[in-house]
User: Fold this.
Amino acid sequence: MLEIKNLHVAVDGKEILNGVTLSVRPGEVHAIMGPNGSGKSTLSYVLAGRAGYDITEGSIHYNGEDLVELSPEERAAKGVFLAMQYPVEIPGVTTMTFLKTALNAQRRARGESDLDAVAVLRLVRAKAKSLNVSEEMLKRALNVGFSGGEKKRLEILQMAVFEPKLAILDETDSGLDIDALRLVAEGVNVLRDPARAMLVITHYQRLLDYIVPDRIHVLAKGRIVAEGGKELALELEARGYEHIVGQAA
Amino acid sequence: MNLALNLDRKAEAAAIVHSHGVPHRRIEEWKYSDLKAALGEQGLGAVVAEWLVGDLPNGVEIFDLAQPNPPVWVMAHVGRSIQNVMSAASLALSAGGVALRVPKGAAIADPLKLDFTGLGHVRALLVLEESASLNLLEGAGAADFRNVGFEIVIGAGASLEHVRISQQAGDAVLVEEANVRIAAGGRYRAHFAGFGSKLSRMELEIALEGAGAQAHLSGVSVLDGKRHSDVTTNVIHSHGDTNSTQLFKHVVGAQARAVYQGKVTVAKGANGSDSVQTAKALLLGETAEADLKPELEIFADDVKCAHGAAVGDLDAEQLFYLRARGIPESEARGLLLHAFLEDAVEEIANADQRELVRTELLAALKAVA
Assistant:
């Protein structure tokens, strides 16, 4: 589903990723772990199509298509979803209006008809309950005044509503206490599906206790320096990044 | 205006017009709105513009200022304030206009619709007596040149909601001066939606004259092409324990220009005055311009005054977030522009009028974004 080959990315002329190769098949959950500054967030932004990231070498293919050529909105309509580390506050747009606008924009791009307000509300309500997203939150301006946990829950709610094929979770665990973390992880696990791939980006092994990955890649200084099964997370937890990064160098 | 009406005031106004002439950009208050250049050779003229009142709600009294024998309430207020040379011109050069009165204690439920049309000068007077309340929807139609001099008197405990929509008006030069006097416990809530013209200026002078008097001003403008829209306010806290808020938002594209000049004066002894002023503009291109000038003059102690102005572009992070959720760029921009204006629109108390302004904004944003 996702094929990243020898990806080099520069920001303001400075190389952040230098030669990342990664392959994710439908139904798989991959974790990308790494210390701060390793390029984890850069990778997630490049996949979502944010401006300011220059791909100097390599390629990204998504279902056989060159992802780099697509605008962020085209990627979203084709099923790429990025749960952001820092969801943006948008005063003046209610959460519900945003969800309806985005869902219908994606549907339209796929040649599907718009859902009316009642249908969207029904859909959102059904998914919101298990994520503990209240009616009141849906009426408020998007992310404005939301706590860290509320913002992350809303990201996962969007994932549930948009039903992406490739979900990238960028540090979804950051800023969450253990109860919120469990709630978010459950929300993600419910969405595990043979047709859906996930890329879970995290600094800590903690999240992977709840979202158990099929494969773990360790990113350091813009390269993948170690790969393995879920047991790699435990090794990292026990011995720290220094050990693995040092070994690779 | 009826000649018997106030000959002295009319003569005084004429003298002001004669000595000052048409305002131009070298006069500080008109720096961003060069009326003389916009009018060109046609000058101020001496034509009488027209007014049109929609269905008159029960309980509202009306008097045509062109008619003889004005009632006492008209005589008591008309022409009492001459705030600047254009207000003087409307008094000196007009022979017509409308006066409206809401009697003591009358709460008028239906909005009153007042439109100014045609070319020239016109006067208007609105008197809300003690504890009266009214909703006024004012429309400003296009004309080569029009100058409206509006006097609003809000009695003790009275309440006026005023919404003015100035449609996009191509080559028109539209100037209006509103002089609002608010007695103790009186409330004035006004919203000005402007879509610009060759030169559009709404100038407000608001006096908070008794304890508990309040003025809440808000406005939005969406300007395209070479259009111009100027809101100039002068809020005078002449009495203590008074409150004023101002929130103006502008979206400016192409070579358009938005102007906000807001002055708040807290007079000596007007302790306990509270005032907030905010003006923000989004510029959609290199050639768009916004001149935002909040200003404070405080002569009293123990006052709370805050002001701020900001000019910027759409937030790139917000734009990316929306696009990453599948919303196409143009639609995302439209959504953000609308959101930017929304808090000012929410200041409109009447739901129908709020929707009316939203609809106009959507259409204008579609054109400019």
User: Anything to note?
Assistant: The mean pLDDT of chain A is 92. The radius of gyration of chain A is 18 Å.
